[in-house]
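Tokens for chain A. Residues wanted.
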């Protein structure tokens, strides 16, 4: 086995890391404090081809693979989780859904401007009463002539305020449960699409997260995304791949916390010597490094399978579960190593600690990942009932 990055992946890592150091890191603390959305940074990332990583060149994208996507998100997440989250959600969810299920006409219409960062995408799945149980959504879409009329609400929507293109999941046949959900593409400014409250969050504070409501929102028939009633099936495919990249976001945050902890431990003196000389500190750093390296292998495995167009539901869930929890532990240790300074925003580790929590929640909680891993494991060994 070769664990080294291929040349093209190494080039992406170096390019994005240099950009993140120069453009993302300097204002990260200010954006976190003021909840300022990094719109100009995302525009620049679009110029680099990083807002259309998976989009084929024929639609204005970079045509890269999932591994490249994960590498880029990790490199940005090392310095600012909020910006990395925007890159992940825009590419993996909105662009990803249109790529997976969209007609040629929809791809041609929407992907070029999304891929270059001229427009941002918002993926609308979660509702006030349906988070982990996404199939329990109440938003409905009813066919009237050559249009679908959507009513309902969504919350915790990334880019809800700044989005230009919205992928909306709605119930088109409530009697069919999750087999009656369909996806649609709508645009900012359409009558009946209302932007609601912007959330004041614990972490990822520079990432735009809002609620949305739909009041007789009319969507043209041709803007149905994929087949009728197949929206939930497509959504699960999108989330499988997305979880591998959310895991890479967790890796970036965890790596940032670890690197800052090592730097501080070498500089800070106590009892006449560097605190890096104390075994308690050494063990915390060793544990964080080992866990993040293990998580990195899981992420690479999941990305590899996706790039090979192979089934990777369990592998993606394993990567997200372990990477998000390893990141949380690395951030916790980093705060502890910084002592009192870790509890104030003079150092970035307290931000990393807050940002890391979302990785255990977004795109499926840790509990949901364990359920998915269990289901696939039971299926593999051929006994017991399927949940």
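Reply:
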């Amino acid at each position: 086995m070769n664990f080294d990055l291929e040349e093209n992946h190494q080039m992406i890592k170096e390019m994005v890391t240099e950009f993140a150091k120069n453009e993302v890191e300097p204002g990260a603390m200010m954006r976190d404090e003021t909840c300022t959305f990094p719109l100009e940074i995302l525009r620049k990332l679009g110029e680099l081809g990083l807002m259309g990583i998976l989009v084929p060149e024929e639609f204005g994208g970079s045509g890269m693979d999932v591994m490249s996507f994960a590498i880029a998100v990790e490199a940005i997440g090392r310095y600012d989780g909020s910006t990395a989250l925007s890159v992940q959600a825009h590419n993996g969810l909105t662009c990803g859904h249109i790529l997976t299920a969209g007609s040629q006409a929809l791809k041609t219409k929407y992907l070029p401007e999304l891929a270059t960062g001229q427009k941002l995408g918002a993926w609308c799945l979660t509702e006030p009463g349906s988070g982990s149980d996404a199939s329990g959504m109440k938003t409905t879409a009813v066919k009237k002539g050559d249009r679908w009329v959507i009513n309902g609400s969504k919350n915790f929507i990334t880019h809800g305020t700044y989005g230009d293109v919205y992928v909306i999941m709605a119930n088109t046949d409530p009697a069919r449960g999750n087999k009656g959900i369909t996806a649609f593409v709508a645009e900012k400014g359409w009558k009946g699409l209302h932007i609601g409250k912007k959330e004041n969050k614990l972490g990822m504070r520079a990432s735009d997260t809002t609620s949305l409501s739909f009041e007789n929102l009319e969507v043209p028939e041709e803007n149905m995304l994929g087949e009728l009633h197949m929206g939930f099936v497509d959504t699960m495919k999108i989330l499988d791949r997305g979880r591998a990249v959310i895991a890479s976001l967790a890796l970036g945050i965890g790596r940032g916390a670890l690197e800052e902890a090592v730097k501080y431990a070498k500089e800070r003196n106590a009892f006449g010597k560097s605190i890096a000389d104390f075994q308690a500190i050494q063990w915390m750093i060793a544990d964080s490094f080992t866990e993040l390296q293990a998580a990195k292998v899981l992420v690479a495995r999941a990305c590899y399978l996706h790039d090979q167009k192979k089934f990777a539901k369990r592998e993606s869930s394993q990567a997200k579960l372990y990477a998000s929890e390893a990141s949380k532990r690395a951030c916790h240790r980093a705060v502890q190593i910084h002592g009192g300074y870790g509890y104030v925003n003079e150092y970035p580790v307290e931000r990393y600690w807050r940002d890391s929590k979302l990785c255990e929640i977004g795109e499926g909680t840790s509990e949901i990942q364990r359920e998915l891993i269990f289901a696939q494991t039971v299926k593999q060994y051929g006994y017991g009932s399927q949940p």
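The CA atoms of residues 321 and 366 lie 6 Å apart. The domain at 122-229 is CATH 2.40.110.10 (Butyryl-CoA Dehydrogenase, subunit A; domain 2).
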